[in-house]
Amino acid sequence: MQYIDSLLRIDIFDLDNIQNLRAIQTVFELLRNRVGSSISYSSIAQDVGVAPNTVKKYINLFEVLFIIFKVTPYAKNIARSLAKEPKIYFFDNGLVQGDNGAKFENLAALCLLKHAYAKTDYLGEQWKLQYLKTKDGKETDFALIQDNKVVQIIEAKLSDPNPSKGLVWFQEKYGFPACQIVKELRLEHKVKTIEIKKAISFFQELFL
User: Fold this and answer.
1) Predicted confidence band of residue 84 (pLDDT cuts 50, 70, 90)
2) What residue ranges of the chain are covered by domains with CATH 3.40.1350?
3) Which pTM value belongs to this model?
């Protein structure tokens, strides 16, 4: 908690003139408990008792300080993608609250983000980490995007070897290469065209 208090009291207050320490601490704690879920600024604002734009300002500050990073939903129209609700992950996996599944998903997000950055920086290719979500709630955890096209869709699971419904739906409808990475998996295999891989094997193949 001393580390978190230092982040909020020193780094953020030195960066911007923010007076409501309790509000920004509450937003921070809510984000720690909502890793992997899409974030509604309005919903958080109601919980904290501040304006949605204030919540957005706090989250943007966390991002500027490399405390968190956003994963936005993919859309060919970039403006539409930015307008939709992002998911929030932490650069420090130790800041994640919740079960081991949330912590593993955060770790997967961090590795995939580094992979996308490395591809962009070292190979000069345009890569991004996003996720897929339909209006009726079908979703995949992650999507690797190259030149605004989906290269691979990915689901991160702690121990479930059965591909998620969202992963199956997007793969069957659009033919995207799909992989479910599982931390605790005995044998790697395929379910139709979907790869079920050990997380460690998948991470070792990334461009980090």
Assistant:
1) confident
2) 101-204
3) 0.92
